[in-house]
């Protein structure tokens, strides 16, 4: 299912503006949560595909994850693999602003089929894959989209469509990095609003980001959290940060 680019997000944009305020409650409001904490730490949230990660990290509702890497590191592909895994139990929405919807789904189809380079799955398998993706929502929009519309998309998918994981690919296409003296402030504000949306809608938001070009070395250079392109608050404020690096030499 594709979310067409003519969906009217205006009412959701207005909703975002009117609701983005801190709610105030009595301390007793969180009594049940405190009781749960008293029982000791526990791992909760959606698992990723790889068993060795299951007891290390989970993708919890109400959180924001950053997937960062240099061009060609397959950060979007890896995130897509995670979405395929999650789609077995959760409703997924993807705003892939750098690729056509059919290209995004074709790549995921190849991943699902486990085909080797240059091979294509049988047409019968493609039909099964299309059925599997019937509840997966793809935003039919390319190139830069205003950040308010992206926030409207997030609220629409989380509130109206019941999506639990929402992918934004990438930050560079979310209409915040337009240069100028206030560029970092715009990015910080956008990350703040994404976090607020994740917590309010009880969804997990996945934001794809680029990293800066290395000052020395080539593609053997391994980026860190300090190399995420843009404001330093992007990695500072995220709940989870995944750095994706491809060992091309190996």
Description:
With 250 residues, the chain is of the alpha/beta class. 36% of the residues lie in helices and 13% in strands. The chain contains eight helices and seven strands; from the N terminus they run βααβαβααβαβαβαβ. It has helices at 10-19, 31-38, 75-86, 101-113, 123-132, 147-160, 183-201, 233-237; strands at residues 2-3, 63-69, 92-96, 137-139, 165-169, 204-210, 240-243. The protein has a seven-stranded parallel sheet, sandwiched between helices. α7 links the parallel β5 and β6. α3 (75-86) crosses α4 and α6 packs parallel to α7 (183-201). The protein is globular and about 60 Å long. It starts with a strand and ends in a 7-residue tail after the last strand. 32% of the residues are buried.
Note the main attributes of this structure.
alpha/beta; 7-stranded parallel beta sheet; 250 residues; 13% strand
Determine the mean pLDDT: 88
Radius of gyration: 19 Å
> N-to-C terminal Cα separation, in Å?
38 Å
Q: Strands across the major sheet, in which order?
A: 1-4-3-5-6-2-7
Largest sheet: 7 strands, parallel
Give the fraction of residues assigned to helices: 25-40%
Q: How many H/I helical runs?
A: 8
- Range of strand content: 5-15%
């Amino acid at each position: 299912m594709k979310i067409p680019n003519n969906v009217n997000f205006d009412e959701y944009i207005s909703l975002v503006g009117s609701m983005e305020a801190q709610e105030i409650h009595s301390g007793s409001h969180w009594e049940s949560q405190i009781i749960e904490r008293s029982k000791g730490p526990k791992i909760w949230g959606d698992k990723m595909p790889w068993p060795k990660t299951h007891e290390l990290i989970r993708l919890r509702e109400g959180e924001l994850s950053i997937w960062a890497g240099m061009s060609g590191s397959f950060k979007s592909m890896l995130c897509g693999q995670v979405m395929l895994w999650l789609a077995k139990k959760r409703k997924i929405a993807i705003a892939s602003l750098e690729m056509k919807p059919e290209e995004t789904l074709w790549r995921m189809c190849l991943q699902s089929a486990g085909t080797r380079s240059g091979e294509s799955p049988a047409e019968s398998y493609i039909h099964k894959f299309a059925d599997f993706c019937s509840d997966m929502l793809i935003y039919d929009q390319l190139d830069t989209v205003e950040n308010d519309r992206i926030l409207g998309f997030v609220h629409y998918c989380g509130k109206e469509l019941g999506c639990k994981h929402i992918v934004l690919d990438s930050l560079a296409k979310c209409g915040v990095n337009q240069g100028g003296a206030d560029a970092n402030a715009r990015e910080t504000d956008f990350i703040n609003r994404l976090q607020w949306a994740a917590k309010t809608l009880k969804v997990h938001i996945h934001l794809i980001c680029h990293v800066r070009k290395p000052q020395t070395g080539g593609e053997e250079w391994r980026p860190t959290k300090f190399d995420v392109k843009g404001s330093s608050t992007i990695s500072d404020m995220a709940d989870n940060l995944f750095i994706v690096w491809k060992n091309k030499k190996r």
